[in-house]
Amino acid sequence: MTTLTSPTSTTPRWRTALRRATDRRYMPVAGSVLTLVLMLVVGEMRYGGSSGFLTPRLVSNLLVDNSYLLVLAIGMTFVIITGGIDLSVGAVVALTGLVIATLLPMGLPLPVVLLVAVLIGSAMGLIIGVMVQVFDIQPFIASLGVMFLARGLANVVSVNSLAITDEGFASLAAWNVTFGEKANQFRLNAAMLVALVLLIVGFYLLHYTRFGRTVYGVGVGDAGNAIDLMGLRAGRTVLWVYVISGTCAGIAGILFALYTKSGYNLTGIGMELDAIAAVVIGGTILTGGGGYILGTAVGVMVYGLIQVLISREGLGEAWWTKIFIGAVLLVFVIVQRFLTARRR
Amino acid sequence: MSQATSPVVEMTGITIEFPGVKALDGVDFRLFPGEVHALMGENGAGKSTLIKVLTGVYQAGAGRIVVDGVERTFSGTDEAQEAGISTVYQEVNLVGNLSVAENVMLGHEPRTGPFISWRAMRRAAREYLARLHVDVDPGAELSSLSVAVQQLCAIARATVVDAKVLILDEPTSSLQKNEVDELFAVVRELKERGVAILFVSHFLDQVYEISDRMTVLRNGRLVGEYLTPELPRLELVSKMIGRAEGELGSIEARAHRVAESAHDGTPRVRAVGLGKHGRVEPFDLELFPGQIVGLVGLLGSGRTEAARLIYGADRPDSGELELDGKRVRLPHPNAALRHDVAFSSEDRKREGIIGDLTVRENIALAVQTVRGVWRRVPKKEIDEIVDRFMEALNIHPRNPAMLLKNLSGGNQQKVLLARWLATSPKVLVLDEPTRGIDVGAKAEVQRLVIELADRGMSVLFISSEFEEVLRVSERVRIVRDRVVADELVNGPELTSQVLVERIAQTPEKGAVA
């Protein structure tokens, strides 16, 4: 049995720590953190100036501009870790925005409208979950169907951009607390707060609950076989991850409406792909089974930072952002490929 | 084991049907506390199905399950676990991307409120592993460990629940000898504590070493329950394969192709020390032009694994392979085909036929592979090949445009043979070429194999039907517990009876005989 045992008692503590740190499970996330640091260094060198590039204001702006994306990406992380995908979230964002914009003028109280918006998202997620789990339809197809459904419903609600003029909503959108001055100014708004709270909830749900660990177990790619044999319920878990993703999409729809103060049937086209890109850049394995919520947060930051760098560089056109995101994404997918190939 | 105690598990009349197959038919099974009960039978006899009924994976169509005096129906594995039935499955059924600690503890993880307490979980996992004398970092990713350690983690997991019944389905198939000893020590310890242990293994030695009682299944039916010391190996084997000893002896081997020393010169296939860890021990094998060598052994004994090494479907990790005296490496079946070695798989449905293609396309497949994907094989040439083989192999109905799935099993098998013969191989490896086909078709396939050998083809013939092997082979190799052992020359004195005896022998005795 000596071959099996490694005398941990005599192994120095630092060596165990080192091995843990270089564990291949952390490699993709380490890669995204490295990318983030690299981009910050480049930014500092090119636009550092007198006040520096990495300022509280930059971080604040990144979070304000991308809070809806962060929320989408958190939900998407759950789905992708199970080995699935949810293409419907962009359309759900458009639908909830329009629902808010039409329901508020009808005189419904704001909390009710917001709850309805979130529940619309949950319902869309539930449809996907049932199709995937009960009818054994591929997540790609199921969520594609719901994407068309949600986009179609949005067109039914309105084909025009509807401005949201409700006072309560406007004050919610305008609410913020600022700390510091000028470059050191950190502005905290409602959307950012919601996104950060969801980040913490997602983190605990995924890493500290039995449900979260089952999500990983399902993602191992044996159709939940091993998880079921362990006495855990794989099917229920798969259903729930789509409900989570849909709910996040509903919440992101609210945040996006707060951000733009309007609802429009053509918003969020391709937003689901942005969310997927952020999740993958954040180190979640696209084939399932591996990833971290905090990695996703890093991925969203990388995504936002690319946009910042592109605009600072004066390359105003949006496609430069796409090109860079695409390049970063390809690199990450290749890295993942090597990491998962070694696993086999 | 005293009969006075009442069984902890009693299953009666268990019947379960899958589409087209009756996997279990009225099987009775009982398990007493503090005993190791071996469930015996060939692959497909229904052992795993019975276990899955007991653990709640499958629901029996008919029959009763009584656990601890209470009749139960398990609709899920969690319910069976709650009833104290804990299982280590045949393949390591753990989640590779989670940590060792999670794999051992998940479902029973220590929590504070709704949240997993990682520190306590790792500590508990370490303790359970330590009881099995395994010392690994509980935080390590499971898939980074060797299969043997993973297997031990699975067993550690099974001991987390306070199990009354522990099911070990082929727990030793990936373990080394010393690891097996370690496992058996744990099993004995659990047995002392009054745990009832259901043990499944293909290794007869291990079964006789550890078990107190056995139940034998065959083709989904119960053969009987026996006390291990009262059932000699030979009897066990004949019960497993289902022929009375006398009957076995009476079948006359015919058409002996007596192997004179006509085969000299270079063998067409020569394996020296070829082996793969955990699949088949290193073996030597020689196969001359025009020779048919039979490989016999129980299903799962390693005969298919040996064939797969020769064909390049698996990569050996020791030894060399020579074809026509030249050393070759076959990293892939395609390479084997290029060296004129063809292999017909034992699993016709999964690894052989493509049911939704026509007979013609199925036959042409291997020819196309040999040519390369981009080189078109002229239609006329394919038609010619298809016509020739359909004629020669007497494939019915003689309609090349028919979908293969609509043909009978025997004809599907002949189409498969045609596919490989169309590549005009020099070496043909046939794994169970006559399984599941009727007697007439069997005879045709056998006749064909002999004809091919007469024309100089070398054939490695694997079959569970000893009479068949004896009918066609010049030499017979016994495969037992992953060891390709004794080479026997076929002759009038070599009968099924002898083969059964040889297979049942312990390796020690085999060395003397």
Helical residue percent band of chain A: 55-70%
Residue stretches of chain B low in confidence (pLDDT < 50, at least 5 long) are: 244-261, 508-513
List low-pLDDT spans of chain A.
1-10
Mean pLDDT of chain A: 85
Quote the average pLDDT of chain B: 79
Quickly describe the structure:
The complex is a heterodimer of chains A (344) and B (513). With 344 residues, chain A is mainly α.
3D architecture notes:
The complex is a heterodimer of chains A (344) and B (513). Chain A has a domain at 54-267. The model of chain A is unreliable at 1-10 (pLDDT under 50). In chain A, a hairpin with a 6-residue loop joins β2 (176-179) and β3. By secondary structure, chain A is mostly helical. Helices cover 69% and strands 3% of the residues of chain A. Chain A has helices spanning 13-21, 27-47, 56-81, 89-103, 110-133, 139-157, 167-174, 190-208, 210-218, 225-229, 234-260, 271-281, 293-312, 318-343; strands spanning 162-163, 176-179, 186-189, 262-263. In chain A, the strands form two sheets. In chain A, strands 1-4 form a two-stranded antiparallel ribbon. A two-stranded antiparallel ribbon of chain A has the order 2-3. Chain A contains 14 helices and four strands. With 513 residues, chain B is an alpha/beta fold. Chain B has three domains: 9-243, P-loop containing nucleotide triphosphate hydrolases (Rossmann fold), CATH 3.40.50.300; 250-340 and 425-512, P-loop containing nucleotide triphosphate hydrolases (Rossmann fold), CATH 3.40.50; 355-424, no CATH class. Helices cover 36% and strands 24% of the residues of chain B. Chain B has 19 helices and 22 strands. In chain B, the strands form five sheets. A six-stranded mixed beta sheet of chain B has the order 6-9-10-3-11-12, sandwiched between helices. A six-stranded mixed beta sheet of chain B has the order 18-19-20-15-21-22, sandwiched between helices. In chain B, β11 (213-218) and β12 (221-227) form a beta hairpin. In chain B, α13 (359-371) packs across α14 and α13 runs parallel beside α15. Chain B starts with 8 loop residues before the first strand and ends with a helix. Chain A binds chain B through residues 1, 4-8, 16, 19-20, 23-25, 204, 208-210, 213-214, 216-217, 219-220, 225-233, 289-290, 343, and chain B through 55, 57, 76-78, 80-81, 87, 89, 93-98, 102, 106-107, 109, 111, 114-116, 118, 133-137, 139-141, 143-144, 148-149, 152, 157, 178-179, 182.
